[in-house]
Specification:
The complex is a heterodimer of chains A (146) and B (333). Chain A is built from 7 helices and 6 strands; from the N terminus they run αββαββαβααβαα. Chain A has 146 residues and is an alpha/beta fold. Chain B has 14 helices and 2 strands; from the N terminus they run H-H-H-H-E-E-H-H-H-H-H-H-H-H-H-H. The chains are: A alpha/beta (146), B mainly alpha (333).
Chain lengths: 146, 333
């Protein structure tokens, strides 16, 4: 398993080239819930060579301020959802929000579906999740359907 | 002398406070923007245009409209029941709305009409339906109408809450969603919400201003009002409908925000007196301003995270209200 983690780290980009991402949890009302500095998901994102825009904020889950998101301008939005239908709903919802229309990820429809079942259960499967994430982010071209 | 000074002091103070509330709301936020950039964002574009024009401004205006609607609704119901404890949710609007929101989750509805989710629509419709049935049931009673309505409203509200709890109990996974929805927030609300509720709010305000003299007559008691030529039944029906409509769309847009509808009309009555025409008008304006200020605190106090606005309205509103009551008591003694 340690080798698998090493491999993940080898495939992830160098610091400085790391893409800015925003992870959000769909289905919690009209808020942009995300994971802060102390969450294991933030750790997972860091391991996969991604730069979580909410990483500066202490805490586990927090409702992120949309102004900050506009200023952060992430290139990629990861959506944690129960199933693909929820994920499609979430992308439609994000695209329907006028104030967020100029965020790079939304403009270019760069959304990635994270299976809640795989990503929010602790255990050895988190390594699977991490591998899967690296694959989806760096080695898949069609983002929306990934 | 004293009362004359007051007649312009309150409107002037309120206008200044309102202007300050709006200016601060578009200036202050999680992302710091200078006054120059605010100006540019409003009138010529620039890097902060989306934040100023599509986030902060519509949010402030929507908070204003919801605050004004809740305060007006509270002012109407306090006059209707001749009871200063009445508030927009006394007849079960909030329990009806909660039931609607949970029902929408239970049925798995996910459609959106006019930019509003199925939760908002169902909350709006169930609260209107609940109050309508309360009204119809209580109308045939021999009790004095106000009391009968109040008691039936409380019973129906309890029933709706029981049903809500039952549905939540059956589906634990929907619980969080429902709670977040009910706590309410103006986060990410935009112009479409503003345009959707603005005409109804203005219409309700104009109608209640027009019929305010009838409400003054109702304050004397139904029999006296009737003998003075006021069509009691029609007037009561109209005001009840207006108050429910105002409360329901506020809940549908922003969730359940307590306290504004109770303390604002009450405080305004201490300042402008019992005449319902100025009372309705100034309650609406004061409620709007108060909610803009509360929303400003709600989104900046723990930035970048937001706290539910209902927490702020109660936390700031309650002490102020107690202070005001004491101040009034001292003046009379």
């Amino acid at each position: 398993m340690k080798e698998r983690i090493k491999l993940i780290e080898a495939r992830a980009p160098q610091p400085g080239l790391r893409p800015k991402v925003f992870l959000t949890l769909y289905g919690q009302g009209q808020e942009l819930w995300t994971c802060g500095q102390n969450s294991y998901l933030n750790y997972l994102l860091t391991r996969a060579g991604l730069q979580n825009v909410a990483a500066d904020f202490k805490g586990n889950w927090l409702a992120y301020n949309p102004e900050k998101l506009i200023a952060d301008n992430p290139e990629l939005i990861l959506i944690l959802a129960r199933n693909r239908e929820d994920f499609i709903q979430a992308t439609k919802w994000l695209e329907s929000l006028t104030p967020l229309r100029d965020i790079a990820a939304i403009k270019h429809k760069n959304f990635i579906f994270l299976d809640e079942n795989l990503f929010s259960r602790f255990g050895p499967r988190l390594v699977d999740a991490c591998e899967w994430l690296v694959e989806a982010v760096y080695f898949t071209s069609d983002r929306r359907s990934s | 002398m004293n009362s004359q000074r007051k007649t312009w002091l309150f409107p002037a103070g309120l206008s200044l406070l309102t202007a300050a509330a709006f200016l601060l709301s578009i200036k202050i936020g999680a992302v710091s923007v200078s006054w120059k950039e605010v100006w540019a964002g409003l009138f010529s574009g620039g890097q902060y245009r989306d934040i100023i024009v599509h986030l902060r401004l519509p949010r402030a205006i929507l908070a204003y409209l919801v605050g004004a609607a809740l305060a007006l609704s509270g002012a109407i119901l306090q006059g209707y029941f001749r009871n200063p404890l009445a508030d927009p949710f006394i007849l079960g609007v909030s329990s009806g709305a909660s039931l609607g929101a949970v029902l929408s989750l239970e049925l798995g509805l996910t459609w959106t009409v006019f930019g509003f989710s199925s939760q908002s629509w169902l909350a709006f419709l169930t609260s209107l339906l609940l109050v309508a049935s309360v009204y119809l049931v209580s109308e045939n009673r021999r009790l004095r109408q106000g009391e009968s309505l109040l008691l039936t409203g409380i019973a129906a509200g309890a029933m709706a809450s029981a049903l809500t709890s039952f549905l939540l109990f059956r589906r634990a996974d929907a619980y969080e969603q429902a709670v977040f929805w009910l706590l309410g927030s103006f986060s990410l609300s935009g112009w479409k919400e503003v345009w959707l509720i603005l005409p109804y709010f203005l219409l309700a305000l104009i109608i209640s201003e027009y019929f305010a003299p009838e409400m003054n007559l109702l304050a004397l008691g139904d029999e006296v009002a009737q003998s003075l030529g006021c069509p009691v039944r029609t007037t009561r029906r109209l005001f009840l409908f207006l108050a429910t409509l105002l409360a329901s769309f506020s809940v549908a847009v922003a969730g359940i925000i307590g306290f504004v509808g109770l303390i604002v009309p009450h405080s305004v009555r201490l300042i402008v007196g019992p005449d319902h025409r100025p009372l309705f008008f100034y309650s609406a304006l004061t409620g709007g301003t108060m909610l803009v200020l509360c929303d400003l605190v709600a989104r900046t106090a723990f930035s970048p995270s937001e706290i539910p606005i209902g927490v702020i309205t109660a936390a700031l509103g309650a002490p102020f209200f107690i202070y005001l009551l004491n101040w009034q008591g001292q003046k009379h003694s």
